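Quick one: structure tokens for this chain, please?
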Amino acid sequence: MKEKGCVKCGCQEAKTKEIATTGTGLSKMFDIQHNRFTVVYCTNCGYSEFYNMNASGVSNVIDLFFG
């Protein structure tokens, strides 16, 4: 069975960060950052995937990144 890892380079190590972004319209105009995401990125090549914070927990996000 093939080992899971980064889809770009196969590295087995990933880290996470949280970011917040504005939406469109008034939230953009007033710089209201109400969209929250967890970013999972490969420590080797930097490949990143964004996950909506409202949709899943951080522990499940790492599993999604590695397939």
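The beta strands are 14-21, 35-42, 48-52.
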